């Protein structure tokens, strides 16, 4: 299976000419792959973690589409002079989320892992047309409101000694609403250089819970597609009012349905020990961690070591038991293709996947940015 076998949107005019990008805090490559599929060509990619760098190098050496020429390097972001990349289209990345995550210590800008000043410095030195940064929704907690305001102000005016300015937008998103098979709540911070005369567009959801409920409990199409007995009337209490509303309206929601765990893992089969599809023993239910039902998007994959190792990284099987997701299954939940392999241990690979940006979300964001940049190019050419 090649990486570009995944469904993609029709390219816009801007995508006929690849746009150059630089990526900070690359991780295992989810954001990078989504942006590459949206037409961006990575000029430089930087990551500090040895294992994440090894994952990307392993896949680049396997000559995968979009990935074979990724210029990944292991480096401390603080040591890099970004000025040689001045004028590229996009700076992107996911600064470490631990200072703001629910599972972290919530120290914010007092945490030595806070790298937002370095993200702002990259924007200041590169002066890109646009930037895209991703982080956990914990960044929006009231406790961190003053620091978020500082981040936005820093990105809006990254160099007070010059006229460099950016139009900045902050949007909270759920990756399930953009085609990921996972309820992953994140914050996107996007910006365009002010002299381009455009403002960031809000990402418009492409998938919805309503359409999933329609396919499961109004038409039954979902169950037929999976060769299962119809469960039209097997309605969860939280969906009962929505089912009544949809049946009364009798018009299918226009979005695509949320992608469920069952959808994402279709055709993969039980763990067989091949290509990261290896059974991991030890899964069990405990308070607050009950696994992901098959017929909903998965709960967010976790990277931390709090609680039982792997945390919520398990499924509820049709038989009612639980087992850990294999690495291959977790990769599918993050939108990574089956030929994208992880060469390290289960715990290390799951840590990388738990920190990744879902490819589908990154691709929608990339297409949105590319479309707006394309309008600028057309205007300049007119």
UniProtKB/TrEMBL annotation:
The EC number(s) this enzyme carries: 2.1.1.37
Active-site residues per Swiss-Prot or TrEMBL entry: 97
Keywords: Methyltransferase, Restriction system, S-adenosyl-L-methionine, Transferase
This protein's record includes keyword Cell membrane: no
One annotated GO molecular function: DNA (cytosine-5-)-methyltransferase activity
UniProt xrefs under SUPFAM superfamilies: S-adenosyl-L-methionine-dependent methyltransferases (SSF53335)
InterPro entries on file: C5-Methyltransferase (IPR050390), C5_DNA_meth_AS (IPR018117), C5_MeTfrase (IPR001525), SAM-dependent_MTases_sf (IPR029063)
Family classification: Belongs to the class I-like SAM-binding methyltransferase superfamily. C5-methyltransferase family.
Name of the protein this chain belongs to: Cytosine-specific methyltransferase
Lineage start: Bacteria, Pseudomonadati, Pseudomonadota, Alphaproteobacteria, Sphingomonadales
Gene: dcm
């Amino acid at each position: 299976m090649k990486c570009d076998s995944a469904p993609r949107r029709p390219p816009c005019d801007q995508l006929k000419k690849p746009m150059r990008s630089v990526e900070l805090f690359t991780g295992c490559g989810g954001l990078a792959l989504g942006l590459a599929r949206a037409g961006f060509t990575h000029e430089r990619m930087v990551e500090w973690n040895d294992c994440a760098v090894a994952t990307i190098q392993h896949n680049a050496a396997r000559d995968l589409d979009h990935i074979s020429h990724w210029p990944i390097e292991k480096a401390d972001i603080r040591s890099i002079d970004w000025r040689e990349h001045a004028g590229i289209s996009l700076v992107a990345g996911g600064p470490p989320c631990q200072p703001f995550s629910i599972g972290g210590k919530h120290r914010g800008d007092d945490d030595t892992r806070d790298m937002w000043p370095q993200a702002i410095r990259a924007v200041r030195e590169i002066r890109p047309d646009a930037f895209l940064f991703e982080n956990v929704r914990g960044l929006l907690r009231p406790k961190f409101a003053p620091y978020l305001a500082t981040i936005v102000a820093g990105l809006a005016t990254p160099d007070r000694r010059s006229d460099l300015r950016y139009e900045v937008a902050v949007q909270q998103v759920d990756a399930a609403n953009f085609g990921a098979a996972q309820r992953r709540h994140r914050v996107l911070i996007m910006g365009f250089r002010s002299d381009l005369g455009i403002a960031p567009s809000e990402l418009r959801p492409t998938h919805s819970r309503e359409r999933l409920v329609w396919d499961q409990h109004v038409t039954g199409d979902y169950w037929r597609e999976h060769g299962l007995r119809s469960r039209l009337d097997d309605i969860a209490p939280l969906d009962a009012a929505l089912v009544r509303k949809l049946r009364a309206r009798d018009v299918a929601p226009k979005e695509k349905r949320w992608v469920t765990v069952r959808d994402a893992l279709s055709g993969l089969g039980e763990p067989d020990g091949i290509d990261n599809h290896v059974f991991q023993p030890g899964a069990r239910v405990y308070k607050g961690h009950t696994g992901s039902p098959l017929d909903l998007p998965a709960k967010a994959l976790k990277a931390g070591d709090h609680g039982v190792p792997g945390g919520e990284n398990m499924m509820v099987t049709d038989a009612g038991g639980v087992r850990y997701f294999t690495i291959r299954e977790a990769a599918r939940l993050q939108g990574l293709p089956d030929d994208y392999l992880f060469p390290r241990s289960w715990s290390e690979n799951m840590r990388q996947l738990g920190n990744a940006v879902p490819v589908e979300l990154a691709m929608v964001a990339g297409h949105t940015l590319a479309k707006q940049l394309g309008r600028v190019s057309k205007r300049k050419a007119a």
